[in-house]
């Protein structure tokens, strides 16, 4: 009986310590972290932010430093490193345009993305890549037309557009394949 109480007390103290660690870490969030004091692996992952690290608020610095250990964050950083300078610039511009949208429009777009199936997301990414070289007005007109088509016809039209663009002539098909071709959509 006494042993059970001790184990229960020990478990509760351990649980309390686990919850107290993030609070303890956040107590120092008011102090900025100099770039040179970051561990080498953190500097490597946060390299795109090196130029403006000192302009970040201390809380932002601490939050980013905590994210460095996250596997998803590492994968994103690795993807960023593999991008060409042109692709990085395009992404920065796209993010800038997104930030300029009204909050309700951003929220609606996020919800729309979250409600899409994996195949719909792949199709949207494919469409964006395929149409990136078309002038904006023409691209928006094409996208409106494509949205009104049934999915298979939309995919076929996108495929034609991709193969018609000058940079893709002579290249093999870059259309993403569904992992399960028998899957009904």
Automatic annotation (TrEMBL):
<keyword id="KW-0732">Signal</keyword>
<protein>
    <submittedName>
        <fullName>DUF3106 domain-containing protein</fullName>
    </submittedName>
</protein>
<feature type="compositionally biased region" description="Basic and acidic residues">
    <location>
        <begin position="170"/>
        <end position="185"/>
    </location>
</feature>
<feature type="signal peptide">
    <location>
        <begin position="1"/>
        <end position="25"/>
    </location>
</feature>
<feature type="compositionally biased region" description="Basic and acidic residues">
    <location>
        <begin position="148"/>
        <end position="160"/>
    </location>
</feature>
<feature type="region of interest" description="Disordered">
    <location>
        <begin position="86"/>
        <end position="108"/>
    </location>
</feature>
<dbReference type="InterPro" id="IPR021455">
    <property type="entry name" value="DUF3106"/>
</dbReference>
<feature type="region of interest" description="Disordered">
    <location>
        <begin position="148"/>
        <end position="185"/>
    </location>
</feature>
<dbReference type="Pfam" id="PF11304">
    <property type="entry name" value="DUF3106"/>
</dbReference>
């Amino acid at each position: 009986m006494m042993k059970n109480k001790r184990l229960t007390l020990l478990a509760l103290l351990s649980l309390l310590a686990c919850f107290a660690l993030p609070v303890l870490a956040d107590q120092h969030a008011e102090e900025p972290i100099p770039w040179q004091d970051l561990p080498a692996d953190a500097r490597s992952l946060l390299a795109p932010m090196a130029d403006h690290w000192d302009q970040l608020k201390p809380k932002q610095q601490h939050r980013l430093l905590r994210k460095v250990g996250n596997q998803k964050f590492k994968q994103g950083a690795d993807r960023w490193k593999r991008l060409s300078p042109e692709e990085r610039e395009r992404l920065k511009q796209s993010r800038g345009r997104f930030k300029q949208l009204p909050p309700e429009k951003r929220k609606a777009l996020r919800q729309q993305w979250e409600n899409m199936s994996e195949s719909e997301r792949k199709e949207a990414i494919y469409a964006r890549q395929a149409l990136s070289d078309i002038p904006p007005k023409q691209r928006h007109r094409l996208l409106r037309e494509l949205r009104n088509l049934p999915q298979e016809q939309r995919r076929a039209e996108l495929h034609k557009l991709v193969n018609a663009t000058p940079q893709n002539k002579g290249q093999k098909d870059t259309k993403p394949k569904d992992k399960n071709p028998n899957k009904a959509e």
